[in-house]
Specification:
The structure holds 3 protein chains of 3 kinds.
Chain A: H1 3-12, E1 29-36, E2 44-52, E3 55-60, E4 70-73, E5 78-81, E6 83-88, H2 118-124, E7 128-133, E8 141-149, H3 156-159, E9 167-171, H4 193-222, H5 238-247, E10 252-257, H6 260-273, E11 277-282, H7 290-296, E12 299-302, H8 320-326, E13 331-333, H9 344-353, H10 359-364, H11 368-374, E14 391-394, E15 405-410, E16 413-417, H12 418-444
Parallel strand pairs in A: 1-4, 1-5, 6-7, 9-10, 10-11, 11-12, 12-13
Antiparallel strand pairs in A: 1-2, 2-3, 5-14, 7-8, 8-9, 14-15, 15-16
Helix pairs in contact in A: 4-5, 4-6
Chain B: H1 3-20, E1 33-40, E2 48-56, E3 59-64, E4 74-77, E5 82-85, E6 87-92, H2 129-134, E7 139-144, E8 154-159, H3 165-168, E9 169-179, H4 202-229, H5 240-250, E10 255-259, H6 262-275, E11 279-283, H7 291-297, E12 301-303, H8 319-329, E13 334-336, H9 348-357, H10 362-367, H11 371-376, E14 394-397, E15 408-413, E16 416-417, H12 423-431
Parallel strand pairs in B: 1-4, 1-5, 6-7, 9-10, 10-11, 11-12, 12-13
Antiparallel strand pairs in B: 1-2, 2-3, 5-14, 7-8, 8-9, 14-15, 15-16
Helix pairs in contact in B: 4-5, 4-6, 8-9
Chain C: H1 2-20, E1 34-42, E2 50-58, E3 61-66, E4 76-79, E5 84-87, E6 89-94, H2 107-112, H3 117-120, H4 128-131, H5 136-143, E7 147-152, E8 159-167, H6 173-176, E9 177-186, H7 200-226, H8 238-247, E10 253-257, H9 260-272, E11 277-281, H10 290-296, E12 300-303, H11 318-329, H12 333-339, E13 344-347, H13 354-366, H14 371-376, H15 380-385, E14 403-407, E15 416-422, E16 425-428, H16 429-435, E17 446-452, E18 457-466, E19 469-476, E20 479-489, E21 492-501, E22 504-515, E23 518-525, E24 529-537
Parallel strand pairs in C: 1-4, 1-5, 6-7, 9-10, 10-11, 11-12, 12-13
Antiparallel strand pairs in C: 1-2, 2-3, 5-14, 7-8, 8-9, 14-15, 15-16, 17-18, 17-24, 18-19, 19-20, 20-21, 21-22, 22-23, 23-24
Helix pairs in contact in C: 7-8
Classes of the chains: A alpha/beta, B alpha/beta, C alpha+beta.
Chain lengths: 445, 437, 540
């Protein structure tokens, strides 16, 4: 083997487990004899799952292995839909916030995807297959997000979830008003929740003016007589262009908010401007306004029990997500954090203990619900025939306290395999020991 | 700070004060309590599949297959429940931190590097909401440690219940602490400029500084002793910082050393040997790489919370969990801790569960939540197991306490049944009853 | 697009050569001296090497080359029997000759957030021509390693400035100028204070808006120029006027790519911004994007410092693996480019001096790059990239007399350069070398910019060194903090500072190795963590 290749493999050995024997890229797979948690349907105990061309083509008992398919014996393990994290900040190059201006919808995470982020590997090892990676919450209107499938080792372009709706990040409360950043950099308007909302309104008024200016220009062009020189067009403002698209409903608005009252207020603002919010991020006080959230039709992507790190996160409880889900709010659990991302199954189990969500509903908070929130539920989020083969395999039920994720597939391809990982690790450690042992021998002799 | 900020802070404090004043601690010792027909896990000694446990005057007075209820005893029919000794969280900041982002509610880190004399005991707020939320999964006692600088101060070991700090305290001075320096991580930003031609060992240099400080303290104490018996020697000016280190040198006050990297652990082992101090490690993320050395030195380890990433990517994604499993297999005495965020203290047993998932035995994990910390902090005569003579600090749960689907139904601290209500339950009870529309 | 550039550049060169005019001071007399190097080996680069021949130099040009070239009667001869004549090397993207204006930060700016375009790194009007130091002392270092021409380009910020190309003949810059304002620098590293853009994604958005505005500027300007009647005078924006030469006139931009992702980013952006472009592969990661480079027809400036970018997995798996990659993987970058047939020129970006530049070139050859191609990457390809291949890059009649006379191989860590000709001026390198003074000792006194990695923090450090003692002041966005009691030992410095931020006190322990105007080291914050940092001396 050529030296550079050897080095490459050495570096990758601990992150990229070797694929399952026989499971080459694009090869069809037959996962046999496992417990298949479909999420949207019944769990099939002692069942099979067939993957062809990256899609699920069969779920059931005693399915025959299709010709050419590799067989993976699940041996009683649990297969569930790949976990979806609808609020993440990994795989981003550079800062996740553009803090230089108050409103920055023109910035786009798509421009700065980092497919080499090690946290992709950690996420895969926690059963995560799809993430929505987003701009931070520093600005009332931040940047555009992107949905990625965690195809580790592929380019940024190849990771992008094709066809996923466009998203834009908004943020209310302590972060955009910079309550917890006193003395860090210049003071910035706004400093209150009132100011945050006023700033958003001002921005949309500016956008309406901008659209008017262009409309007038178009009208002048139409009215142009032959031989007359065409009027000069207005300047193209790429920031206002995105804002205009937000007004036109081209973006799914993901609004970071903690307090119930700021959520109610921004919903009214959106009604005024004819906008639709897709989802509140965190929404730790969302349990107080479930009636209003359901009526408005907005989802909440929340934490299981992370709280009390700041004032706006204080008036909440670990029962919040369960209570919202039980009262009809489309609720997802997200990580917002590279570390939390690898234990979302554990976080989901907390909603069973706190607030008494059923296991079936709790599983939805990390699979089909975030898929609906991201507008990709037709492709992923449950194990159904015809959907993408995004699958996480656990040695025990994912809510079992001692469960370990053992395999993760994206589009039918194995991107994490614990057995392969352990084997590679053992080899690497033996190899590392060798020179040490030899050196030891020389010393002795 | 601006006037506005002060105003905002004071409003928050007022709100917090209102919250924390809501609950009353458990009633004073009532009569005897008999727990009947529970599965009893005493931690040391055999498990009783169905047994009784008697509590009198704050202590456990009997444990057995069948204990007769004294007259007037309250009987708790506990069939279907399992009794465990209360868990001891071996490193926390309960009562020192209320809301991390609001400085006015944070009392964990004093300014400056060397504050070996400051004591958690002086600042712990027994009425912090986190004591109540933190105990619902079985934690009945916690080490509360200050955190700032190289010598953060002196920790206290408290029960998770009480009208006042002295009532809660099991040990007002539990340990001293040293934050051992940490070797640099690999760079995370783009490298500019030339690479160093030689490695700079900053860690060793900083360890030298710690040693220098200790040596000054030793010198001070020796001089003071000398002056007491020899009028020709002038006693040095009183130095409370050095004074606070005297019990450390005498070996009566153990020191918690925070360490992470394997290389630093080895440095710390050398340091402990040279300084002849009674030490406990905290953190030890790369401990598995030098597990045999830690075991040989007989240093117990308080593992940090397991909601964490590998110390370095090359350790592998599962290093935090593997670390605990391998330290346990090597025979190192382990204690679990929930770490520096008291708002997530309830997760203590879940960290233990992650270690079990990756290879630690369940039995060892339970020990690391009970008798191990009791021994490490020298309170095993009172806490850590269910046995006659010990404090009645225990809980009854619906299943495996490491399983987050289990629920603690009864908890006793110092023989008093604890109200398991808290801020969360108050909110839940209120808001689940909002009419649906 | 590239053809356009090639057409315009030589024209500019000729124009500038004409401008140079007749000699005006005694210093330039040498331009009109006549030299003949006899019996030398000639690496012509335009054809096969000539084993024994003569090179005649007159009026700054090569008058004759070949085995049979006659020695003119008025020529001073140089015995070349032990020497090989090479085309003078071209140092692309030279930084060492530029004296960048100092950025002035004060508390007011930090508190008010009122930063200038300079602070933001938006300086397309910063011209290499204006800030270059071509004094004899400055260029002598280059001569020792065979460099006879440089392209210098300011590289600080986002729109970093414009390049200029010179022969390093030690004369006035107007006399040695070859091309002025011939390339624009575009960086991806944002300012790290609260100013727009301060994130990578912000930089991309900024570039889109900026070049959209430039197109708008051009459109309005041209419409107005064509017919002013009935049209209000369009606003004049100096910045856009400068950039118009690049957006419309086809002068190329150089994208500074810190890693493979930046290369992909630049390949996508350049057509979007309608820019002719070069890739500066600062992360030595072309080998990871060869198909993309090939498809885009990209031309690459290839540094030879071979540092593994922090974004690469190769730098995230411990020291050993990082060093292995640095030693064995990244130095293959030039060879991989050559194999793939992607045109590249070496550049001195990332190296501290010509010596380390040559070390890097030798390393590239050791790692599989044929030495002939290495030489091309510093001569003919470099001249082609500059659009100067008619005048530079080979030993041919009519070309500018930029020549190196070396004993043995030129591509060596310590080439034995005897003479160097720049614009026909002869430099006796061997003699100058012997006279070179002893190395100065390390003195860190002065202003430094510390870049603390991971923290994303840049701080200014005023250091005062007195013998082995070190004291100073650290200026941060949170205020300035004095310290004393530091030490300097050999080329290592150590000091400790305490920051007071928001009622908290933070102790920082710095330790670093100094190499010239740079240092590299670690900063430890007690047990809280630590980071590596690099520092650069702020000139002035």
């Amino acid at each position: 083997m050529k030296q550079p290749e050897r080095l490459l493999i050495l570096a990758a050995v601990l992150v990229l487990a070797r694929p399952y024997p026989g499971a080459a890229e694009g090869k069809d797979l037959h996962l046999k004899n496992g417990n298949i948690i479909t999420v949207t349907g019944e769990t099939v105990k002692g069942g099979d799952l067939v993957i062809r061309g990256g899609k699920i083509t069969g779920i059931g008992k005693n399915i025959q292995t299709p010709a050419g398919a590799a067989v993976v014996d699940l041996a009683g393990r649990w297969a569930m839909p790949g976990i979806i994290d609808s609020h993440s900040h990994i795989a981003i190059e550079g800062s996740v916030n553009e803090m230089g201006d108050l409103m920055t919808p023109e910035v786009d995470i798509r421009d700065v995807i980092n497919p080499e982020d090690i946290y992709i590997v950690y996420a895969l090892a926690g059963g995560v297959t799809t993430i929505h990676t987003m701009h931070g919450s520093g600005n009332p209107i931040g940047g555009r997000g992107i949905v990625l499938k965690l195809r580790w080792g592929k380019s940024a372009e190849e990771m992008i979830f094709r066809g996923a709706p466009l998203t834009i990040k908004w943020a209310l409360g302590e972060n955009p008003k910079r309550s917890n950043a006193l003395g860090m950099g210049p003071s910035r308007y706004p400093r209150t929740r009132m100011g945050v909302e006023a700033a958003i309104r001002l921005e949309f008024e500016k956008t309406k003016d901008y659209l008017n200016t262009w409309a007038q220009h178009e009208n002048r062009l139409k009215a142009l007589k032959k031989g007359e020189p065409p009027p000069l067009p207005p300047r193209k403002d790429l920031r206002l262009e995105v804002l205009a698209d937000i007004l036109k409903g081209k973006y799914w608005v993901r609004c970071h908010a903690y307090q119930s009252e700021e959520m109610l207020s921004i919903m009214r603002l959106c009604d005024e401007y004819g906008l639709k919010l897709a989802c509140f991020e965190h929404g730790l006080e969302g349990y107080r306004i479930t009636n209003e959230l359901v009526r408005y039709g907005v989802a909440v992507s929340s934490f299981a029990d992370f709280w009390a790190y700041k004032w706006e996160a204080y008036n909440t409880m670990p029962h919040s997500a369960a209570l919202m889900a039980q009262r009809g709010v489309l609720t997802a659990l997200n990580s917002d954090d590279a570390e939390r991302m690898r234990r979302l199954f554990h976080e989901a189990a907390k909603t069973v203990r706190f607030g008494g969500l059923s296991e079936a509903e709790a599983l939805k908070t990390i699979t089909i619900n975030p898929a609906i929130i991201l507008g990709i539920a037709d492709r992923t989020g449950s194990l159904e025939v015809g959907k993408d083969a995004d699958i996480a395999v656990f040695n025990r039920h994912p809510f079992d306290p001692y469960t370990v994720c053992e395999m993760t597939l994206v589009d039918g391809e194995i991107f994490f395999d614990r057995a392969g990982y352990l084997e590679a690790r053992k080899k690497a450690e033996e190899e590392k020991k060798k020179p040490e042992e030899e050196a030891g021998k020389e010393k002795r002799s | 700070m601006s006037g506005g900020a002060t105003m905002k802070t004071s409003i928050v404090i007022a709100a917090l004060a209102a919250l924390t004043a809501l609950w009353t601690p458990a009633a004073e010792t009532t009569g005897p309590v008999l727990i009947r027909g529970a599965r009893i896990v005493p931690v040391e000694g055999p498990v009783l599949e169905s047994g009784d446990l008697l509590i009198e005057n704050g202590k456990i007075t009997a444990v057995g297959p069948s204990v007769k209820a004294p007259e007037g005893a309250r009987v708790i029919e506990a069939s279907g429940l399992t009794a465990y000794p209360g868990f001891i969280d071996a490193y926390t900041q309960y009562g020192l931190v209320e809301i991390g982002a609001i400085a006015a509610t944070v009392d964990s880190s004093e300014m400056g590097k060397e504050n070996p004399e400051v004591r958690a005991a002086w600042a712990i707020n027994p009425h912090s909401v986190h004591f109540r939320t933190g105990r619902i999964c079985g934690t009945t006692a916690a080490l509360v440690a200050p955190a700032g600088g190289t010598f953060p101060g002196i920790s206290a070991l408290v029960k998770m219940e009480g009208w006042s700090f002295p009532e809660m305290a099991v040990k007002e001075e539990a340990t001293s602490l040293i934050n051992f320096p940490m070797s640099p991580r690999p760079p995370t930003a783009e490298q500019v400029g030339p690479k160093p031609t030689t490695e700079i060992d900053v860690t060793s240099k900083l360890v030298e500084k710690i040693k220098e400080y200790l040596s000054e303290a030793r010198h001070y104490l020796a001089l003071k002793k000398e002056a007491a018996s020899n009028p020709a020697v002038k006693a040095p000016d009183h130095n409370p910082k050095y004074e606070a280190l005297a019990p450390v040198f005498e070996g009566t006050l153990p020191v918690i050393l925070s360490v992470e990297k394997a290389k630093d652990i080895e440095l710390a082992l050398k340091f402990i040997k040279e300084e002849k101090i009674k030490a406990v490690f905290r953190g030890c993320a790369q401990g598995y790489k030098v597990a045999d050395k830690i075991k040989a030195a007989g240093i117990p380890v308080i593992v940090g919370d397991l909601y964490r990433d590998p110390s370095e990517p090359e350790d592998g994604y599962d290093a935090p969990f593997r670390n605990v499993a391998e330290l346990s297999k090597a025979g190192v005495t382990l204690c679990f801790s929930s770490g520096t965020n008291p708002s997530t203290g309830k997760d203590l047993p879940y960290h233990a569960a992650r270690a079990v998932a990756f290879g630690m035995s369940h039995e060892d994990a339970v020990k690391a939540l009970t008798i191990n910390p009791a021994r490490v902090f020298g309170i095993d005569d009172r806490l850590g197991t269910l046995a006659p003579g010990k404090d009645a600090d225990l809980f009854l749960t619906t299943g495996d306490p490491l399983d987050l689907r289990s629920e603690v139904k009864h908890m006793f601290i110092s023989g008093r049944e604890i109200d398991l209500g808290n801020w969360w339950k108050d909110l839940y009870d209120k808001w689940k009853s909002r009419p649906l529309k | 697009m590239r053809n356009r550039a090639l057409k315009t550049w030589p024209a500019a060169a000729v124009w500038i050569l004409l401008l140079a005019g007749p000699p005006q001071s005694p210093a330039e007399e040498s331009l009109h001296r006549v030299w003949a190097v006899k019996d030398c080996k000639i690496i012509t680069q335009s054809g096969p090497a000539i084993e024994k021949g003569t090179v005649v130099i007159r009026d700054g040009l090569i008058e004759a080359v070949g085995p049979g070239a006659a020695v003119p009667a008025d020529a001073e001869t140089i015995d070349g029997s032990a020497l090989t004549v090479y085309p003078g090397l071209i140092d692309i993207l030279n930084q060492s000759l530029l004296k960048l204006p100092e950025l002035k930060f004060d508390q007011t700016k930090i508190l008010t957030g009122q930063y200038t375009d300079e602070d933001k790194g938006i300086t397309p009007g910063l011209l290499a021509f204006d800030i270059i130091d071509l004094s004899k002392a400055a260029v002598e270092k280059l001569h020792k390693y065979g460099f006879a021409a440089v392209q210098a380009l300011p590289m600080r910020g986002l729109l970093t400035g414009q390049a200029a190309v010179f022969s390093v003949s030690g004369t006035d810059k107007n006399q040695s100028l070859l091309l002025k304002d011939n390339a624009l620098g575009i960086g991806f590293s944002p300012a790290n204070f609260m100013v727009y853009p301060n994130s990578l994604m912000g930089v991309v958005s900024f570039l889109r808006q900026e070049f959209s505005d430039v197109s708008y500027f051009i459109m309005r300007r041209d419409r107005w120029r064509k017919d002013m009647r009935g049209l209000a005078r369009p606003a004049y924006v100096a910045r856009h006027d400068l950039l118009a030469d690049y957006a419309a006139a086809g002068k190329p931009a150089v994208f500074f790519c810190r890693n493979q992702h930046d290369i992909r980013r630049a390949l996508e952006l350049a057509p979007e911004l309608k820019l002719d472009f070069f890739i500066l592969d600062q992360g030595s990661e072309s080998w990871r994007v060869l198909p993309e480079l090939k498809k885009a027809g990209a031309r690459v400036f290839c540094p030879v410092d071979f540092k593994v970018p922090a974004s690469s997995l190769h730098s995230q798996f411990g020291k050993e693996k990082k060093e292995a990659a640095e030693k064995e993987l990244y130095p293959k970058n030039p060879a991989r480019l050559a194999e793939a047939g992607i045109p590249f020129a070496f550049c001195s970006v990332g190296t501290d001096d010509p010596k380390s530049f040559m070390e890097g070139v030798v390393k590239a050859v050791e790692n599989g790059l044929p030495s002939a191609q290495a030489l091309e990457a510093m001569t003919i390809t470099a001249s082609r990239f500059l659009g100067l291949d008619r005048a530079l890059g080979t030993v041919e009649k009519g070309k500018i007399a930029n020549l190196v006379l070396v004993e043995g191989d030129l591509l060596a860590v310590e080439p034995k350069v005897h003479y160097l000709f720049a614009d026909g001026t002869k430099f006796d390198v061997l003699k100058a070398k012997a006279e070179a003074a002893a190395k100065p000792t390390v003195n860190v006194s002065g202003k430094w910019e510390f870049d603390i990695q991971g923290a994303g923090l840049k701080v200014t450090m005023d250091l005062v060194q007195e013998d082995t003692g070190l004291s100073g002041r650290m200026s941060t966005p949170f205020g300035a903090f004095d310290f004393t009691g530091g030490t300097v030992s050999g080329n290592q410095i150590d000091f400790e500072t305490t920051l007071q931020v928001g009622g908290q006190s933070i102790d920082l322990y710095f330790s670093a190795l100094v190499e010239g105007d740079r240092m590299t080291g670690s900063v430890v914050q007690g047990t809280e963590g630590s980071a590596e940092f690099t520092a650069k001396r702020i000139p002035g």
